[in-house]
């Protein structure tokens, strides 16, 4: 989805000179085209994430619309205080793009796994966290961004994720998108894991015909009021994310529901703790860390079982 | 003499009064950079208190945010907001905190206080200025202790690489940091050579000589490289018992000390 994101950004940059792409010496084969097309709107600031955020905030203070591009935790946790002060509290119009959300970078090791970044970013004021589930959502984010100022943290997959939508989509802030129509129950997900859920949901429906509906939540730390009211009316909701559980997407949903004194049961699926320093592909690590095929299947069936007979009309 | 020495005296008196009233720290750090700030706000930078966010302004970033008392006193005396607000420094529910906070009063470009943030931000502003106008400048006041921060040196690399001739760093070289002198804390010398090797134009000036700072900034207006002024200063400048004493990084003056300090400030030539 990173290629589709950059392609969409190129279209925006063509019409809007305020768009600046700043990279921390990463993006080989991904940002080259942007750099060639718009040399005056492209800066490689070197391997220097703290100052990269400061530079972006300085540009934003002068009316530019910078995107900061790097991978894993480099543009988030490495420079968390810069994001807190210069971007979040200042409400700067900076979009931080982290490629490799979750365990995308598999064999590159835990230094490259972005699994606590959501928790860090969600603690900051004004920060919108956006986690597209496929390339269409990633491209739609750029369109949405064109009319929405403020701090944003975009978590992208590494690339090659299957498409869940059949064509271009439009994002509306705080609204989930239905990506799989099931029978019984509701699952909220974000990011690349969504396609793993859909894959298992298809299997369940083939065998038993009772998979839950699956919604992608690209706006993964905000729901609009209608969505919240809808979730709060459900008997049960499943929440899945490829992150640590503490402070993750599941925590976010639970906090919102608790704040509304809702009776909705929540079943969360996230990485097992304690975390392990395992070596392997994303698929291997998912199996090792609690997000394997059987865990996903059991999770979906449990949501379905607890939601029997419930209408999920929004 | 530019006549601005009288302004600097007033600012020093304000700083002392503010730190006394609110029992606030960092009086020494504030007194050391008063003349630099007065030079910028009264002489060298294009700023307009009536239009603090004007598109054609020069941008001044006070990265050593613990010198908030000096910064606020200069802004107030320059007319960005009423001097009467200074008496509320560090008071509950008021506008002026112990570290520089943006968005509450006019003139503040960035919240600072955590060191090493101002220069990277300034690089971004200077890039923006270079993309939109050939005449605007960015000034960043950093402390010498702040040169311990890696982010400062990241930005030093970047500013030179992007040839930001419109960017000026002023180092308040008072040689004292939080626990003791800079050289026994974390050796900075040869500081001049360090910045030169990063590709900067480096000038050393007397950081209390307003005319000298001002002339230097004018001379460097058309520099093709980013410029750093190493401003040799005295921490606690103007008050004999505060000068070069690390404890005045923390203490606030008692009534007796305030009275003595004000006499010294007002009688200084």
- In DSSP terms, counting alpha (H) and pi (I) runs of 4 or more, how many helices of chain A? 11
Strands side by side in the biggest sheet of chain B: 1-2-3-5-4
Helical content class of chain A: 25-40%
Mean pLDDT of chain B: 96
CATH class descriptor name of the largest domain in chain A? Alpha Beta
Tell me the number of strands of chain B.
5
* Structural class based on helices, strands and sheet pairing of chain B: alpha/beta
Largest sheet data of chain B: 5 strands, parallel
Lay out the secondary structure.
The complex is a heterodimer of chains A (314) and B (269).
Chain A: H1 2-15, E1 19-23, H2 32-37, E2 42-44, H3 49-61, E3 65-71, H4 80-89, E4 95-99, H5 117-122, E5 128-130, H6 135-145, E6 152-156, E7 177-180, E8 186-189, H7 193-207, E9 213-216, H8 225-233, E10 236-244, H9 249-259, E11 265-271, H10 282-288, H11 293-306
Parallel strand pairs in A: 1-2, 1-3, 3-4, 4-6, 5-6, 8-9, 8-10, 10-11
Antiparallel strand pairs in A: 7-9
Chain B: H1 4-22, H2 27-32, H3 34-44, E1 59-62, H4 68-78, H5 118-132, E2 138-143, H6 150-161, E3 167-173, H7 182-185, H8 191-197, E4 201-206, H9 210-219, E5 227-232, H10 255-267
Provide a descriptive summary of the structure in words.
The complex is a heterodimer of chains A (314) and B (269). By secondary structure, chain A is an alpha/beta fold. Helix content of chain A is 37%, strand content 18%. Chain A folds into two domains: 2-156, Rossmann fold; 177-306, Rossmann fold (3-Layer(aba) Sandwich). Chain A has helices at residues 2-15, 32-37, 49-61, 80-89, 117-122, 135-145, 193-207, 225-233, 249-259, 282-288, 293-306; strands at residues 19-23, 42-44, 65-71, 95-99, 128-130, 152-156, 177-180, 186-189, 213-216, 236-244, 265-271. In chain A, strand 3 (65-71), helix 4 and strand 4 (95-99) form a beta-alpha-beta unit. In chain A, helix 1 (2-15) runs parallel beside helix 6 (135-145), helix 3 (49-61) packs parallel to helix 4 and helix 7 (193-207) crosses helix 11 (293-306). Chain A is globular and about 60 Å long. Chain A starts with a helix and ends in an 8-residue tail after the last helix. The model of chain A has no long low-confidence stretch (mean pLDDT 96). With 269 residues, chain B is α/β, with parallel strands linked by helices. Chain B has a single domain (4-267), classed as 3-Layer(aba) Sandwich (Rossmann fold), CATH 3.40.50. Chain B has helices at residues 4-22, 27-32, 34-44, 68-78, 118-132, 150-161, 182-185, 191-197, 210-219, 255-267, and strands at residues 59-62, 138-143, 167-173, 201-206, 227-232. Chain B is globular, with a radius of gyration of 17 Å. Chain B starts with a helix and ends with a helix. The model of chain B has no long low-confidence stretch (mean pLDDT 96). Chains A and B meet through helix 3 and helix 4 of A and helix 5 and helix 6 of B.
